[in-house]
TrEMBL record:
Releases the supercoiling and torsional tension of DNA introduced during the DNA replication and transcription by transiently cleaving and rejoining one strand of the DNA duplex. Introduces a single-strand break via transesterification at a target site in duplex DNA. The scissile phosphodiester is attacked by the catalytic tyrosine of the enzyme, resulting in the formation of a DNA-(5'-phosphotyrosyl)-enzyme intermediate and the expulsion of a 3'-OH DNA strand. The free DNA strand than undergoes passage around the unbroken strand thus removing DNA supercoils. Introduces a single-strand break via transesterification at a target site in duplex DNA. Releases the supercoiling and torsional tension of DNA introduced during the DNA replication and transcription by transiently cleaving and rejoining one strand of the DNA duplex. The scissile phosphodiester is attacked by the catalytic tyrosine of the enzyme, resulting in the formation of a DNA-(5'-phosphotyrosyl)-enzyme intermediate and the expulsion of a 3'-OH DNA strand. The keyword Isomerase applies. It comes from Tigriopus californicus (Marine copepod). It catalyses: ATP-independent breakage of single-stranded DNA, followed by passage and rejoining. This is DNA topoisomerase. The keyword Lipid metabolism does not apply. Coiled coil: none annotated. One of its GO terms (biological process) is DNA recombination. GO terms for molecular function: DNA binding; DNA topoisomerase type I (single strand cut, ATP-independent) activity. Residues 171-595 form the Topo IA-type catalytic domain. Belongs to the type IA topoisomerase family. GO terms for cellular component: nucleus.
Amino acid sequence: MVGVLMVAEKPSLALSIAQILSNHKCVSRKGFNGACSVHEWTGSFQGLQGVKFKMTSVCGHVNTLDFPSKYNNWDRVDPSELFYCSTEKKEATPKLKMPAFLAAEAKHNEFLVLWLDCDKEGENICFEVMNCVLDSMKRPQGGMRQFHRAKFSSITDKDIKLAMNTLVEPDENQSKSVDARQELDLRIGCAFTRFQTKFFQGKYGDLDSSLISYGPCQTPTLGFCVGRHDIIQTFKPETYWTIAVKVKTELSGRQLVLDWDRQRCFDKEVAQLFLSDVKSHKYATVTNISSKEKAKERPIALNTVELMRVASSGLGMGPHHAMQIAEKLYIQGFISYPRTESTHYSENFDLKDALRQHQNSSDWGAEVRELLSQGINKPKKGHDAGDHPPITPMRAASRDQLDGDSWRVYDYVVRHFIASLSRNCKYLSTVITIAIGDESFSMTGKKTIDPGFTALMTWQTLLEDDENLPTVNKGDQLMIDDVRLLEKQTSPPDYLTESDLITLMEKHGIGTDASIPVHINNICQRNYVTIGAGRKLIPTTLGIVLVHGYLKIDPDLVHPQMRSAVEEQLDLIAHGRANFKSVLKHTLEIFKLKFQYFVSNISGMDQLFEVSFSTLAESGRPFSRCGKCRRFMKYVMAKPSRLYCNTCDETLNLPQNGNIKLYQELKCPLDDFEILYVTAGGSGKSYVFCPYCYNNPPFREMRKDMGCNSCTHPTCTHGQNSNGVSQCVECEEGILVLDAASIPKWKLGCNRCDVIIRLFNDAAKVSVLDEKNCSECDAQIMKVEYKEGKSKLEEGELTAEGCIYCDESLSRLVEKHHAVLMRRRPNRQGTGRGGAGRGRGKPGRGRGGKRGKVPKDKMAQLAAYFV
Ligand SMILES: *[C@@H]1O[C@H](CO)[C@@H](O)[C@H](O)[C@H]1NC(C)=O
Ligand SMILES: *[C@@H]1O[C@H](CO)[C@@H](O)[C@H](O)[C@H]1NC(C)=O
Ligand SMILES: *[C@@H]1O[C@H](CO)[C@@H](O)[C@H](O)[C@H]1NC(C)=O
Ligand SMILES: *[C@@H]1O[C@H](CO)[C@@H](O)[C@H](O)[C@H]1NC(C)=O
């Protein structure tokens, strides 16, 4: 029997597409990786009958590009090596076991149909998938093509079935352009980021950012925001004068304010000449009245950039959030694919049919019915970028089907769509010209004739101010009531709004419709800009100093031309007009030279840092004693928090996002540093640690960033040998270790994963008994002691000893939780869609001590108490 494997980009898409292709007759099962389902049915394929179809999915990118792990050691690797060292594709999410899963499902199948999203990233994932299944598939008979690509823009019956009948070949050049972008961003971003992070964090204590990142897109994005800031800062207000005249009509006696045609005058003496001329008259004369019909044009079809702009300026939603919602609406079949540059409806798109879907809506049904009966207007000519059609609604939804923000985005997409087929807004614009001596003044007013599309896009409604205009005739005389000279000042422009920034990025070719929201999000997260009222982007001192530093050393690092030139090259690769290798080589050579120049000129940037930030020696407060010099080290609280010893000039990293305290002034037996305790609130992880061991692991099995609960010191009372209770109930490598500092909310925490076991709440003392193991499960025996009146033990006993898993009287006082995860230091910037390039800390692989192994059935038993 012939088999066809099909792969979509997300599990929910696989299900929707399978239901459409199988006419809702597919049978579903879970894949062995637990994350992706497989949907199966029988049908025909390319003239073959009784073909077995299998539809499944990946979860975004299968692979991520990274350096081999030896290059991810910041202390040992010179960042300039990152321009040429080897790279490797790693599994983007090892937990999903995606390559093995795909290979297993592909076995005995002859054909592969790729249903990845139809953009460059999607094309790249196609090749990742093909790589996984190549070896396990059978060759089709008779030289038929094995790998097929489906091209579609929405999850509708029509689109999906059409795509299935017009399969094409996957496009390797598009995929290559993504490979090139990933590699460039990884190498350039990491080299600069590592160098400047180490340089500046080693010197300053109040930078308040855990990573001083550079990104080929991120930095020009920041550059726009700082550029506007500089204009505001260097703006010198100028004084000007204007003549304000009020007149009265003879009939009604109503007072009217006139606008001076010269508007403003920057010379006071000249302004006074005009003033005395005007003042010498008693009457103003109406010299002309002109009324013209004008139009405010309906919008062109919606693309991603416009959606993000309106979401930010109209809905108050950041572009990153807005795109996540749009993507959800797409997957649910409510709107078409939301990542597109096109603003032109394709000729075969049935506009009327799409409109008819909405005629029963209680929100815009009336407008739709009217449009359908009067005939729709030809949409304005837009730009066809040849990618996806513009964003349109695909299915009618009502307010109660969608949650708040989803509804708001959907509502906008629908209104925009209907508006693009609606009439222009027509209005009458009236100008009354008035003369006083030789000076001209005027009054203007607008009156709506036909609201057209603004009936739908109500926020675009014209401000009518026609009622302010008097009824006058040419030649009428108006009595002058008041004349004065007003002194005013010019004002600087405002900070860029997010919507302005999106416009600038689009104009200068920084990022793509898919990555623009990611770059904006990044500069906020790195604390380079903050979002002010009206979603204005206000750069922080750090953001400003960075950009000024680049401008001082090498403006190319900030100016957008450099990046747009690179994006053009990438586009050439995508269209088969440039060679992948040579583009990569050429670009890396340029950036390597720029990097070297930057490194040797860094003092130029440092001079700017010196003025704005405090050195480590000046920051922080005395906290705990250094084991080497016995003097107090300083606790630097800004991000990243650190300990700094002034005497030894040594910096020790601390766990981030936790609250750090001294632990009874106890010392580490290995190095004499004072032991500290970190807690991340009631639901977070907590453990004691020695700040020196945390940075310089004392034993082979220990890695950096580990606490005493991972320390294999044979006798130390803080180590895992003294406090370990059993193997973790969830992960394979971890040990559950008593947090001896957690009194009175006692807990055990896994020293590898985020499992937390709470137990013996309010007990006065909890300890792990050495040398005593449970005879049933081999877990360490624990002892609990309560104060009078607080006991939760049976019959109010004050102390008990036993196994927390097997002794029923103790196990009922035990609960499992998951810690709220502490974030690790990411090692580089995110690039585009999820998978690619999000740093993950590697869990250590230390061998645990000889602790009890909890048998499976005991775990199940314990599970009964889990909340
Ligand atoms: C005066 O108004 C008429 C229309 O009423 C217009 O055609 C003409 O251009 C106007 N003249 C001036 C000088 O604005
Ligand atoms: C709208 O309502 C009419 C009458 O109730 C019904 O015939 C029609 O199918 C509905 N159209 C849509 C698109 O739901
Ligand atoms: C891909 O690019 C190569 C040149 O690098 C070109 O020869 C080839 O025709 C391109 N393929 C497609 C499908 O455009
Ligand atoms: C900048 O770097 C170049 C090249 O390494 C070097 O020749 C030059 O002296 C540096 N300039 C400054 C101001 O340090």
